[in-house]
Amino acid sequence: MKVMSRAVRGLLLVAAPFALVSPALAQEPAAQTAIPQVPAPKAVQSEGEVPWLYEGSDVPVDREWLFGKMDNGLRYAVRRNGVPPNQVSIRVRVDAGSLHERDHEQGYAHLLEHMLFRESKYLGQAEAIAAWQRLGATFGSDANAETSPTHTAYKLDIPDIDRAKLSESFKLLSGMIREPVINGANVDAERPIVLAEKRERGGAAQRIAELTRQTFFAGQRLSTRSPIGTIETLEGATGPKVRDFYERWYRPENTVIVVAGDADPLVLAGLVEQWFGDWQGTGEAGVAPAFGDPVAPEGTQRAAGSGWPIGEIAVAVEPDLPRNLTYAVMRPWRKVQDTIVYNEGLLLDAVAQAIINRRLEERARAGGSYLYAQAQQDDVSRSADMTFVTFAPLTNDWKAALVDVRSVIQDAINSEPTQEEIDREVAEFEVAFVNAVETASVEAGSRQADNLVNAVDIRETIASSQTVLDVFQGMQDRFNPQEVLARTKSLFEGDVVRSVYVTPAIGEADSGALKLALASEIASDSSARLAASSISFDELPPVGEAGTIVSETTLEVLDIEQIDFANGVKALIWANSAEPGRVTVRVRFGAGYRAFDAQSAVYAPLGEMALVGSGLGELGQNEIDRLATGRKLGFDFAINDAVFTFTAQTRSSDVEDQLYLFAAKLGMPRWDADPVIRAKAAAELSYSTFSTSPGGVINRDLEYLATDKDPRFATPDPEALKGVTPEGFRKVWEPLLRQGPVEVLVFGEFDRDAIVEKLRTTFGALEPAQPIAPEIAARIPAFPQDTEEPTVLKHRGDANQAAAVLSWRSGGGMARIRESRQLEILVQVFNNRLLEALREKAGASYSPQVFSDWPADLPGGGTITAFAQFEPDFVPIFFAEAERIAKGLATNPPTPDELDRVTEPLSQQIRRASTGNQFWLYNIEGATSDPRRSSMLRSLLIDFSQTSTQNMRFLADRYFGQGAPLKLAVIPEGQELAALPADYVPSALPEPAPAVPAAPAAEVIGR
């Protein structure tokens, strides 16, 4: 069960998005399509049988699932789910991961995952990506796979499903799973892609991950098995060797198929049986190896006081990584009897951990010696039951930080928590479980399928959200100090304790010193215990005098209402029942990045980290936490191109309190110093981590370079952070919270009249906002002019890692928003061509990407960016290939099939997303200032789903043919940028389409 893991209008096609909310349209079968016959399933387990997932359990069966077990041993679970409408999510889980590999096979499970997409019975060489795109699936999100130490899972989300597409999907998938083409040629073709993936994951972070795995799981199989494998074993892979691994493990008795989607469960079960019922394994079946247990080294003595047997210890020096210390109390993993009593124990564990973590956070907020700390129990890869403690020391005095963290935990082990502390955490869990019940009808089928796959992996059951709530509410008498203390003690008892400390400084620590520090007795520190009494919203002062409504109108889309207040605040509200119990609130205000200049720029990223934590009114961060007890409230803050936003997803019963919080932050902000100090420390500690990989350097500097070194987009370095003070933070941010215009959006299930009244007493009560000065409004990011030669930056990661970027100037604003949508089609075609050239043909890069950024709130400043990682010598080839492909989009425009492979997934993304409120909120926000946002919704679907060769040629010429892109290369320190090889030969392109003269903009864009 693992309860803790886990307005239809008669419009023409041009107004298609509005029709998307019509269930009739979503369910309508394709006309003139022959419906394939699906045989009735024979292996469905009857209600009188215990479903295979629930054997040995008393957890109530979730009857929404239909379970089956076939004669060949394959098990399946299917259910109807209409979220989003007309989609089916298919998961195929094979009980074989890296822990099942022999020594010479390391990496084979993952390599085989790639191979199944390379070629199979119904799909030729490299045809899988295109095939799933033609069915409307986006590669990488709708069509993907994963390999873990314990399993390999194939994931497909097929939109706009009908019986023909459903049958075709099962057919293609069955060919991939049952009859992949495994030969030397395909191994040789896929090996460089896997090696590229391994290379891109390298660097300091990967070294630490490897060291941590080897240390914590010393003596166990997991210590020597990573899903990515080793260079030696991958280079030694051959067709017969990989085939041998496949035959041992890819067998029906090792396979579970899970399907959740908008279809009759009996049809889904019938399709599973039709395409997999006669599958028989070949060769000798594999026998799962023992994963081993965590065992203390021979002769290990138990530490005084704690009683811990201290095992393996590692200290790693990584000059570019911040200090981080993790220790783990380890116990053997055993398959459990997944009973209600067992799950009650998990809930007690969760409450115990929540109390500890809240105390650790309180200690950090109060000026502790660490930036953050957390305790968490986890079952890792069916290899160990572990309680992790992780923290980041603020200075090189890691011993003091370790004492601080351990003393807080020791207090939790030694003394009972108060009932008030327990009640506070129980209230937090209850609101989460109640919310899950309230929103169960809108839980996505893909999530339900993933949850069941996870349950199979951890050898437990699943439960409905109502069952979870019933179990929780039925054990209230167990949430008492005695039982919570007992579970706390058990969390920190184990067979061995292991630890890894990462430091940037040589000589700061060694394994002996760390072992001694862990073995030492520790005193309890009760100072972090919290007063848990809640604070009522009724006790809080009003934001101001209730405002006056001056206008109430209805937009031309979906009956969304606009409410205007006398103080200039404007609200867009849409009360609907599309997502029961759920409400999304967003507040837009101010000028966003335009508000900053060279002097204040350093405070922008610190604001994203510290503005919310600095409090409001008489409430600091701890008081806000107490205020939120038993409620689902959020407070996400973001700085966008031209506006600041507060966003929260809340419940129908809590939305009024959510509005008060947001309005109070604008109307009566507080300026506590500690959150600013912590944010500054975090920024200082993390800055050097950007240098550990080429991708990190690009994340640090690309936006700065692409805006012609605009200081607003520079990542603050330690020198810039030196001058940061809480007083300076307030001086910058206080006037920004008073800037308008202010727009509030409330979308979801709520009482319309109650929300209008709450808006009147919160946002309507604010003082009128200050207008944005013209010189600030005019700040549009520039684009560098001198881009003929590449900018070369250096990283301090692995010597075989490099990355490069090409970035072209595009546009922005609503005046040409339809052009931006058509541009997205072109960019996706570019992405497919780059993927074909660099990954499928050259095997040089694992995941090259092309993406477009078109700021809707600014009349310019957009970019199109192509990015990839590879070996350093490939950088000039990337520049040549990416530029050739970009320019070729005008002279060699996309073929009809290329366009179909892009427009079908894009249109399906829109259709699926349009069933939720956040889609409409995202597309309508800003409409109170720019009414074009609502009118342009009418063409949204058609703009993304229909285009022409003329449009593509015109856009390619406009954006790729008129100016040189910014070129950025990131190579290792000590190396120089390579030259383009003399024997370089451009990749082959598809056959060019018939020449079509480029049409002028008026004939192409905006139709």
From TrEMBL:
Domain Peptidase M16 N-terminal: 84-201
Keyword flag Cell cycle: no
GO annotation, biological process: proteolysis
All residue ranges annotated as the Peptidase M16 C-terminal domain in the record: 241-425, 725-902
InterPro entries (UniProt xref): Metalloenz_LuxS/M16 (IPR011249), Pept_M16_N (IPR011765), Peptidase_M16 (IPR050626), Peptidase_M16_C (IPR007863)
Key word Protease present: yes
A GO MF label: metallopeptidase activity
Pfam families (UniProt xref): Peptidase_M16 (PF00675), Peptidase_M16_C (PF05193)
Signal sequence segment: 1-26
Keyword set, alphabetical order: Hydrolase, Metalloprotease, Protease, Signal, Zinc
Family of the protein in this entry: Belongs to the peptidase M16 family.
Protein name, per record: Insulinase family protein
Organism: Erythrobacter insulae
Lineage of origin: Bacteria, Pseudomonadati, Pseudomonadota, Alphaproteobacteria, Sphingomonadales
